[in-house]
Structure formats: C-alpha cells, structure tokens
Amino acid sequence: MTTKLNDTRLALFGGPKTIDRPFKRYNPIGREEVEAAKQVVESGVLSQFIGAWDPDFYGGPKVKEFERKCENYFGVKHAITVNSWTSGLIAAVGAIGIEPGDEVIVTPFTMCASATAILHWNAIPVFADIDPDTFCLDPKSVEANVTPFTKAIMAVDIFGHSANMDALMEIARKHKLKVITDTAQAPGAMYKGRFAGTLSHVGGFSLNYHKHIHTGEGGILVTDDDELAERLRLIRNHAEAVVGDMDLANLTNMIGYNFRLGEIECAIGIAQLDKLAELVTGRQKIAQRLTVGLAGLKGLKTPTIEEGCTHSYYVYPLVFDVKKLGISRTRILEALQAEGLQGLAGGYVNVHLLPMYQRKIAYGTHGFPWSSDVCRREVNYAKGICPVAEELHDQTFAGFPMCLHELTDDDVALIIAAFRKVWAQLDSLHA
C-alpha cells in the first residue's frame, strides 16, 4: 500500500498536497502605526478639512505632514492625498481639462476604475493593446489609436512594473497630449532612476489594504505642475464652493467632491512610508527566489524586467505557452491549486469586454455618452481590438497575488516544489 511519504501522485489525482497550510496574510501594520493612530484619536481631530475658502481647505496637520513627506520621498513638487485611488484617477482626469467627448487612450488590462474615471467626465475611453512582456501599454498600439479627438493617455504600471514612459511621453509631445500614470500597483518601482508614477503630467498610488503600503483606503496624487496640483486639490474638496473666493479664471471641471483623506489614515501613511523601501526589497527578494526556482520549466515564462526598471511585485506574473505544453491553462491551474497553491489564478481583466462597453450604456438608459453628440465617432470595443491582452486573459496568463501574502522562505520553497511536482507529471494532465 502506498504511504503518504512516498506517494508522488499529483494531489489532483488523490496524492498528498505539497502545501497543506495557509500562507500568512500580508500585514505591514505594526506598533508605529498603532501609536500614530492612537495619537490622532486622542487629539480628537480626526479630520480638519473645510469645504470653504479657509486655511483648513487643505486639511489638517497629519494630511499636510503626509503630503510633504510624500513629496520628499518621491521627489515631486506636489503630493495630494485622496480617500481612494479611484478618487485620485477621477480628480486627475478632471484636472487636466478633459472635455465631454474627448478621447483618452487606456489599457484594457487593468482594474476597471482606470477607464471608468475617464467616463466619469463624459470622455471616451479608447483601448490600446499591451506589451506581451510587461503587460503595460504598447506604445505602437497607442500611436495607432491616436485620433484628432485624443487628448490624453492613461498608462497603468500593472503588477509592479512601469510602462515605457520614454516612448509614451514622446507620443504625448508629438500629439500635444497629457499623460496620467496609474501606479496603484507599483509604488516604489523605479524607471531609469526615478520612481514609477512620477514621470507623467500627473500620477499616483493606491493605499488600500492589499497594496505595498496601506491606510485601509486612500491614494496619493503626484505632479510637478503647480496649476495641476491646485486643480487636483480643488476637485478633491468642493471646488465650486471656493473658486469665487479664489478669483479663479479657469472653471473647467471645477466640480468638486469630498475626496478627502482623514487624519488617522494620514498618520498611518506617515509611518508606512518609512517602510516602503524595505517592503519592496523584501518582495523583490521573494520574486527572485521564485524566478530562480522556476527556471527551466518547459513552457513557463517568469516575469520580465526591462532595462533600467525595477519591479515591485504586486503580482508575480506568469505566462504559459499552452501550444508548447499541449495542455490548457485551466488544467495546469487545477493541478497547481490542488497542490495547495493559494490565490494563483488565470486571466486578469479585459475592461473593453465588460458589459458597459459592449452595450455602450453608462449614464442613463440611452447609451450616454456614446449615443450623444459629444461622442464624435463610432468607437470600437469588439473582441479582437486588443489581441495580446485578450489572449493573455483567455488562454495564457496567470498571476500569483504576492500582495495578499507574507511569504516565508519555507513558503517560497513549497511554491517552487508544487510547480516542479506538477511539471514532472505534465503528461498525466493530458488524460
């Protein structure tokens, strides 16, 4: 009778799991954050924003301290906190002066908020394809999608790697476009000596619970443009209530919101920012061990890091060469998941294929803005417009959510063992 110790069958076929315990949940919160939050609670000042023209229009002491700390850390002139990165994206699109019907080129391989922030201002998302190695916007596809109605590019630094900012900024200069960088997943990643997210007209980072640093919810906008910075602050905090007192001439998109981050969150953020470099370095070391451990496995592509860039590994991305393997991604993932590999999932998102874009219904019941006069041409969202992103989503991509786990050396060894066990018995998956 086969014993558990010498039973090498895949767990999918009744053998023992390689990983028989859950990974520890990622949690960078320590005593520093607890003490910082405690001090704010005891002060009684949980927020100090006023939605009127007043010294407190810009927030309380911790908001301002966190913003100055972010400016110093990321090497930018202005950092503006917001209550979520979705709010940050909405503010960024509004601040650059987007008009109803303007087109903004964006990746389909992203969380849906990237594109929804464009629609928020009644502008039109246009989806360009992605680079098969970095999964970020492909500059050639961006160039091919520029029209007379294009006003901006939104680059997403997906999974922890920067987009090709040199190429995208050159396209922007050529066509007189603005560039927004959505660096929600890549704080601390570098692009040619500068932080990802800081090379565009306006960029920024997410602070929600599974990001590298988190305050529960929140976001940080960054820019070197004085006018853009002030417009971001206005959209954050009831712009229409204060522009008169400010004697502001340009009222474009001065529709304000309550996008304000509180004092507790900013106090936690101050403590968290001190840990960012260490947290990113730790993630990079884990990823390097995984890459070395998975090297040589047939038909498995581990992460690409472009020259001059670093990766902060929100997700550890993998691509299966299913033609070479002769096995579907679904079948391989079933085997790996049966071995206890938690969170590994196929696909990501193809935003252009969501129902909102397929039916072209956003505001109301009649297809606004696409059905209105503000939309100046028929925009195509059919399957096939982004073949690289679509093939990755449908057949070949899988991501391991490093953002959710605090992995030990033993955990990494078990992950590698699970892959190697499955790859040693790939032939059994053909059945």
Structural features:
four-stranded antiparallel sheet, globular, 431 residues, Aspartate Aminotransferase, domain 1, seven-stranded mixed sheet, 13 strands, Aspartate Aminotransferase, domain 2, alpha/beta, 2 domains
- The name of the CATH superfamily of the largest domain reads Type I PLP-dependent aspartate aminotransferase-like (Major domain)
N/C terminus separation? 24 Å
Stretches with pLDDT under 50, minimum 5 residues: none
Total of DSSP H or I helical runs spanning 4+ residues: 15
Strand order of the largest sheet: 1-9-8-5-4-2-3
Radius of gyration: 23 Å
Please name the CATH topology of the largest domain.
Answer: Aspartate Aminotransferase, domain 2
SSE string: HHEHEHEHEHEEEEEHHHHEEHHEHHEH
Q: How many discrete structural domains?
A: 2
For the secondary structure, the number of strands is 13
Q: What percentage of amino acids are in beta strands?
A: 5-15%
CATH C-level class of the largest domain: Alpha Beta
Rough shape?
Answer: globular
Major beta-sheet overview? 7 strands, mixed
